[in-house]
Amino acid sequence: MAGFRIGRGRDNRTPQQGHQQPQQQPYGTQAPPPPYGQQPWPPAGGSGVPHGARHPGGHQGYSGTHGEPEYFGDPYHQPHQGDPYANNPGHTQAFSINEDPYGDGNTYRAGQAPAQPAGPRLHWKQLLSGIVLRPGPTFWQMRDYPVWGPALIVTFLYGLLALFGFDQARDDAIHATISTAVPYVLLTGLGFVIGGLVLGAVTHTLARQLGGDGAWQPTVGLSMLIMSITDAPRLIFALFLGGENSLVQVLGWITWLASAALFTSMVSKSHDLPWPKALGASAIQLIALLSIIKLGTI
User: Which residue intervals define the domain Yip1 in the entry (predicted)?
Assistant: First the structure.
C-alpha cells in the first residue's frame, strides 16, 4: 500500500520526465520584454488569450507576426519619418509658403495702381465740369483713362485766346493784317499745346521719381486741362481789361493757387502719393505757369 501511494500519488511522470525542463527558444527568437507597467506577453505560439482580448467578431486580439495583443501595439515600432536628418544641426527641412487663399495677387496696395479702373470713362462734359465741381472723385475715376481729345482741344483753344490776354501781343495781333495775324494766333495755340505736353511730362516724371506709379497719358492730359481751365477766369477779364489791370492781377494769383490745389489732388489720385509729394511733383509746372502766364507779364 505504501508503494502504491508512492508510485501512484500526486505525479504520474517517470523520473526522467519529472526532471525535464521546459525547452528554451533559440537565441534571437525570444519576444522582447513588454513595456513597463503592462501585462507580460504570452509566449510565442501560445494559445492563451487574456480575458477581453477577443474582438466582437470572434478574431483573436493578437498580431499574427509576434503574437502580441493588437490593442497594445508594437512598443518598438517607430513611426515613419520622411527625412531622418531633418531639423538636425547642419540639415534644413524644406517647406513651402502657402498662397493667400483670399487673394489672387491683384489686390490693391498703397503705392500701386489698382488692378481695375476706378469707374467708367467720363464723357467730356462730365470731365470738364468734374474738374471744377468735384475734382477728387473725377481725378480718381479718370486716373486710368487717357484724355487726349479734350486735353488737346481745350488747350489749343485756350492758347488762341491767351494771346489776347497779354497787352503787347494783343496790340500786335490787332494791328496786323489778317494774313499775318491768323498764322500768329494759330502758332500761339500750338505753342501752348506743346508747352502743356512738356510740362505735363515733367510732372509725371517727378511723380514717378517720388514713388508714384500712375500712367503717363492720364497725368499729362489732366495736367493740360487743369492748366487751361484754372486760367480761364483771369483770361476772360484780361481780354477786356488788359493783363495789367489790378483785378486781373488778383484773379491771376487766386487762379494760380487754385491750379496748385488741383495739380496736387490730380497727382495724388493718379499716382497714389501723399499730398506733400504730389505738390513737389507739380512744383516745376506751377513755377513755369507762374512765370509765363501769371498776370499777363509777357
Answer: 130-291
Contacts (Cβ under 8 Å, ≥6 apart) of 37: none
Contact 227, 263 (CB under 8 A): no
- In Å, how far are 22, 226, 228, 231 from 150, measured between CA atoms? 110, 11, 11, 16
For residue 97, give Cα distances in angstroms to 59, 100, 229. 47, 9, 52
Distances from the Cα of 294 to the Cα of 183, 244, 261, 289, angstroms: 24, 11, 16, 7
Q: Bridge partners of 62?
A: 69
Give the three-class secondary structure for 62.
strand
Separation CA 242–CA 174 (nearest Å)? 14
SS3 252: helix
Q: Which helix (H) or strand (E) holds 261?
A: helix 246-271
pLDDT given for residue 155 in this prediction: 96
Counting every residue, how long is the chain?
A: 298
pLDDT for residue 30: 54
Distance CA 158, CA 155 (A): 5
- Return the C-alpha cell found at 240: 477786356
> Which amino acid, one-letter code, is at 240?
F
Q: 0.70 exceeded by the pTM?
A: no
The region, left, alpha or beta by phi > 0 then psi within -120 to 50, assigned to residue 34 is beta
**Closest C-alpha to 211, from 128, 153, 278:** 278
For cell 509725371, what's the residue? 204
Of 256, 224, 251, 257, the closest CA to residue 238 belongs to 251
Question: Residue 176's pLDDT is what?
Answer: 81
Give, as one character, the DSSP assignment of residue 115: S
